[in-house]
Design brief:
Layout lengths: L3 E5 L3 H13 L3 E5 L2 H9 L7 E4 L8 H8 L10 E5 L4 H10 L3 E4 L4 H29 L4 E2 L13 E8 L3 E8 L7 H16 L8 E7 L4 E11 L7 E10 L4 H19 L6 H12 L3 E2 L4
Parallel strand pairs: 1-2, 1-3, 3-4, 4-5
Antiparallel strand pairs: 6-12, 7-8, 7-11, 9-10, 10-11
Helix pairs in contact: 2-3, 7-8
Length: about 300
């Protein structure tokens, strides 16, 4: 699969030339004429770019503003970002580095240098992802002593939500436990569902995915588990659903155990069987109040 590059540049001739060069070197390229246009493109992409390259001086939204907005988006804020610009003074370069930009190439530039920088950033990012996956596997296979995420007095604040995607209405609340709460289950579930969709995209959810989020608006943590099963009557050829837990706090290690639990529950959902959320709630509560994470079976 060809690596996807997002290239943002207001000079049409340079945009076309770089696009051709990258495509001839086995990259897939999406272009935008300014930062505002690029943000619209990113919001509709199912595939996350491997690298973002952007000019600085552009109309409507310049490169600095664009990078700042990209940094706020969970889906793409870890994507390597390269400034390609004529602004070559030490102050300009220092400012870009202070913002957190990964690299800075000045015009005119050597195309081989651009290719080398892109390849280096992609390789580095893949190495980071590989290490993260190995750490996940490592930490999920040992007894780990940690602080409980939830204290016994706060167990009643743990909530389990089941939602399905409806092509007409969007995220639709199917069930929740416990039944009593002063929170809006539909609103919280929609918030989690849309955050997960934004990161993974509708078209890419064919296998189980999970995300741990800080829900600042209600001062809670949320772990959303997103999966699907085949259904030709649906727009994406699959019925997408979300199992989620809301709690005062959920640490990373507990989220790994919750994912294992939700994997088992999703097997019932995939088989069109009813999931008893009261039982799921009890098991999640046991996980969140545990001070030792047991060895995975």
């Amino acid at each position: 699969m060809k690596p996807l590059i997002l290239f943002v540049e207001d000079n049409a001739d340079l945009l076309y030339a770089i696009k051709l060069n990258l495509e001839s070197n086995n990259f897939k390229v999406i272009t935008a004429k300014n930062g505002k246009n690029a943000l619209n493109i990113l919001s509709n992409l199912d595939e996350v770019p491997e690298v973002i390259i952007s000019d600085i001086m552009m109309p409507e939204m310049d490169g600095y503003e664009f990078f700042t907005e990209v940094s706020k988006i969970p889906k793409v804020n870890q994507v390597p970002f390269i400034f390609l610009t004529a602004k070559s003074s030490p102050e300009d370069i220092r400012f870009g580095k202070m913002l957190g930009v990964d690299d800075y190439l000045t015009k005119p530039f050597n195309e081989k240098d651009l290719l080398a920088v892109i390849s280096g950033k992609i390789k580095r990012n893949k190495n980071i992802k590989s290490i993260t996956e190995k750490m996940d596997t490592f930490f999920s296979s040992f007894d780990i002593e940690i602080e409980p995420s939830v204290l016994p007095d706060d167990i009643e604040k743990i909530i389990i939500i089941l939602m399905f995607w409806d092509d007409k209405y969007g995220p639709k609340l199917i069930n929740h436990y416990p039944k009593y709460s002063n929170l809006s289950f539909q609103d919280i579930g929609t918030q989690l569902f849309q955050a997960t969709l934004f990161i993974y995209g509708h078209g890419k959810i064919t296998n189980a995915e999970g995300i741990l989020l800080n829900l600042k608006n209600i001062k809670m943590s949320g772990y959303a588990y997103f999966n699907s099963y085949p259904d030709e009557s649906e727009r994406y050829g699959q019925k997408q659903y979300m199992l989620a837990t809301i709690a005062p706090n959920i640490n990373y290690f507990h989220s790994l155990k919750i994912k294992e639990l939700f994997n088992l529950a999703s097997n019932k959902i995939d088989s069109k069987k009813k999931v008893d959320l009261k039982i799921v709630w009890k098991e999640v509560s046991d996980i969140l109040t545990a001070s030792v994470i047991p060895i995975s079976s």
